UniProtKB/TrEMBL annotation:
Organism: Ardenticatena maritima
Domain UspA: 2-124, 162-266
Spans through the membrane: none
Entry similarity comment: Belongs to the universal stress protein A family.
InterPro entries tied to this protein: Rossmann-like_a/b/a_fold (IPR014729), UspA (IPR006016)
Protein name from the UniProt record: UspA domain-containing protein
Amino acid sequence: MHILVATGGAEHSQKAVTFAGLLARDTNAALTLLTVRKPGHSEEAARVALEEAQRALPPNLARVQTRIREGHPAEEIVFECEEGGYDLAVVGERQHHTLRTRFLLGSTAQRVVEHAPCPVVVAKGRIAPVRRLLLCEGLRTDAPLARRFMEQLPELVTLPLEITILHVISQLALTPYDPSVEDSETVQLARRILAGDRQLLSKRHAHVQERLRYGLVVEEIIAEAAWDYDMLVLGAHPGAGWRRILLDDITHDVLVKAPAPVLVVR
């Protein structure tokens, strides 16, 4: 596996570097550190950012290289993903401090997630080796999230993971739980997909569990994520035209609010 991590020296970039370094160590992956120099900015500053990033990596990583590109950060990160044939890209999330912007995903992270040809991790919150995984399953019977995760990142599946497969049955806030919902077609479909995911993942992992929650989808995912998961996994929808994928409101809001790194698979 070959991981690309973008760094610019800021705190959110350091989280991306730390996360990518831990993942490269645990999967024996090759790692490329990329920094993007804006036109007119010093190349020396770019080299310093890369040197700082290298010092933040775990010791004894066998395959580490560095790259400097010039241009717009999001565009150059995506171009590097396309040209380098990477299996995974890792970016940080810039923190927003105003009331107007704190519920928005940083423009660079969002553009990379939308346009990179490979899965992308937005590194944020608590950074730790990936051991507990929350896989947020939808209802795509043609492409269950567990299958896409295993096909796109088979090296991650070799880690000693504890995996919870979650689906949220959408329900209005303050609406009392109705036991009859268990007999609905939606719940039965969700249970079949979760059972299929569990069967697929259990071939590699002893600790796989299914979980259904009821309520507002984003709020329930974040509530479950609060139980010290090391990474959340979300699926993206194919886009049209110049957009490779679409970030729907749920995916965007989970990316913003999640307390841990979020992996978006194609």
